[in-house]
Amino acid sequence: LTPLHPAAPPGLGMEVMAPATISALNGTSVKLSCTFNSCYKVENKQFSLNWTYQECSNCSEELFLQFRMKIMNKQLDRFGNRVEFTGNPAKYDVSFTLKNVQLEDEGIYNCYVLNPPDRHRGYASISLKVLTEEPPKHDSTVAVIVGASVGGFLAVVILVLMVVKCVRRKKQQRLNTDDQKTEEEGKTDGEGNPDEGTK
């Protein structure tokens, strides 16, 4: 049995790349980046791009951004005028920026690219997670201060322990060399630093 859709020869099919997951803070702007590889130069007359949105993996896709000769925003009520195309198809970049991210913007964003004479349409999807500012700012500040204080205190303790260890080790070595000298010379230097080179 022959497959209905023959696979593209390795290295010849179009490859579309996008991060699997992007997190954005509620109220900020986020760039949903999508780039592609193609063996052919992008010709605006033939090149086509679709960005679609899905609330969940089984939900239907809604088209909100399209490139046919030029960029066209499909004004979904969901996004209003918060979608801005920030890519450059000539440089194989079809990214867009979503401004003033809302909690309900969470979902799956699909990027479809076709660049004839490539016969295969490339595709990538991004899962957008929207974060709210939690915990409240003063709590996190306290946590940072406590964390820094504890961290700083531990660093000092460790440093002191290292210094003590080094000093002890040096004393021990000095004692050992003194003992060896005493044994070798049969007498003890009263004071002064024993010179290891001379007897």
Automatic annotation (TrEMBL):
Sorted alphabetically, the keyword list is: Disulfide bond, Glycoprotein, Immunoglobulin domain, Membrane, Signal, Transmembrane, Transmembrane helix
- The annotated region (Disordered) lies at 173-199
Listed InterPro entries? Ig-like_dom, Ig-like_dom_sf, Ig-like_fold, Ig_sub, Ig_V-set, Myelin_P0-rel
Superkingdom, according to UniProt? Eukaryota
> Which residue stretches does the UniProt record annotate as biased composition, category Basic and acidic residues?
176-199
Give the record's membrane topology: Single-pass type I membrane protein
Q: Which GO terms describe its cellular component?
A: plasma membrane
- Which regions span the lipid bilayer? 142-164
Q: Where in the cell is it found?
A: Membrane
Q: Does the keyword Membrane apply?
A: yes
The Ig-like domain is annotated at: 10-127
Q: Kindly name one Pfam family recorded for this protein.
A: V-set
Q: What is this protein called?
A: SCN2B protein
